[in-house]
């Protein structure tokens, strides 16, 4: 099952993607929660409800996905938890040993944008770097979960571009400021339920392209901390809630380690792709 978030008539809406069409839930099922976070937090059997919607969808609720103005899949997640250096080769290219415990930082909701929305290069820096990643979205409350049960708590997955202002990332020992500029966290294009994808997204190829050139291309088999292990580690510390987003790390090939460095500039087009999750595409604009 695939769900998109989009804006129509000044309101955020969700749609169920079926082929090239999107069923506008605000028209087809007004009684359902009208955003992805609401769906995840509800006590409804979401898949059953949405399957029923497909069977009895009125024609006026159908939209072409090509005509939509996409927004961030979840506007205000309870938490956005990011994992640094979770691909072994990326740790090595950055000049460090692969970590023995995840490097964890947080993003703010204000940084989020959707598919086809512009990533913003801020006035204060020209060192805007790409980081293609896979996002795991929590579906039920999790605390003190064992690794073998970790995947039971993931509702689905999406793509993410953890675009980073590199010079600001290094202004302090904590990475937070370089990861939270407005308009730098692209999240989309679709929320795909876990049942449609390989367990834990294991063995999936993740690719990032800049203006058509492949910059990152790696398998999630290179994860240091696989999805289920991340749920165990994080839930030891904090309660994970429905709608929490875990950004699981970027592979080798980021721009700042290249010689010469490659940073994104206005007019560039960056794409993140993984089998089963589609293509997350964004252009770059100056603030």
Automatic annotation (TrEMBL):
Entries under Pfam families matching the protein: FAA_hydrolase
Keyword Metal-binding: yes
Source superkingdom: Bacteria
InterPro entries: FAH, Fumarylacetoacetase-like_C, Fumarylacetoacetase_C_sf
Domain Fumarylacetoacetase-like C-terminal as annotated: residue spans: 79-284
Gene3D superfamilies: Fumarylacetoacetase-like, C-terminal domain (3.90.850.10)
Keywords for this protein: Hydrolase, Metal-binding
SUPFAM superfamilies membership: FAH
Entry keyword Hydrolase: yes
Any GO molecular function: hydrolase activity
Stored PANTHER family: FUMARYLACETOACETATE HYDROLASE DOMAIN-CONTAINING PROTEIN 2A, FUMARYLACETOACETATE HYDROLASE DOMAIN-CONTAINING PROTEIN 2A-RELATED
Similarity comment: Belongs to the FAH family.
Protein name: Fumarylacetoacetate hydrolase family protein
Organism: Vibrio algarum
């Amino acid at each position: 099952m695939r769900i998109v978030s989009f804006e129509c008539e000044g309101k955020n809406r969700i749609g169920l993607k079926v082929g090239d069409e999107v069923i506008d839930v605000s028209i087809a099922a007004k009684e359902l929660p009208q955003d992805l976070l609401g769906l995840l937090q509800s006590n409804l059997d979401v898949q059953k409800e949405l399957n029923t919607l497909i069977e009895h969808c009125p024609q006026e609720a159908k939209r072409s996905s090509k005509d939509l103005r996409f927004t961030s899949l979840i506007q205000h997640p309870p938490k956005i938890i990011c994992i640094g250096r979770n691909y072994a080769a990326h740790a090595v290219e950055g000049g460090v040993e692969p970590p023995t415990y995840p490097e964890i930082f947080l993003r703010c909701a204000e940084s989020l944008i959707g598919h086809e929305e512009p990533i913003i290069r801020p006035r204060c820096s020209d060192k805007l770097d790409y980081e293609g990643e896979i996002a795991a979205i929590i579906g039920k409350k999790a605390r003190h979960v064992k690794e073998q049960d970790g995947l039971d708590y993931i509702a689905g997955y999406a793509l993410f571009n953890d675009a980073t202002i590199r010079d600001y990332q290094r202004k302090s020992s904590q990475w937070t400021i370089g990861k939270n500029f407005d308009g730098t966290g692209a999240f989309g294009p679709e929320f795909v339920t876990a049942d449609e994808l390989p367990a834990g997204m294991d063995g999936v190829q993740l690719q990032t392209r800049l203006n058509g050139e492949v910059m990152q291309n790696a398998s999630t088999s290179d994860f240091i901390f696989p999805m289920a292990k991340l749920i165990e580690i994080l839930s030891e510390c904090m309660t994970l809630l429905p709608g929490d987003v875990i950004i699981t790390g970027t592979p080798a090939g980021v721009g700042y380690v290249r010689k010469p460095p490659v940073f994104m500039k206005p007019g560039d087009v960056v794409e993140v792709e993984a089998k089963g999750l589609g293509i997350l595409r964004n252009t770059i604009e100056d603030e």
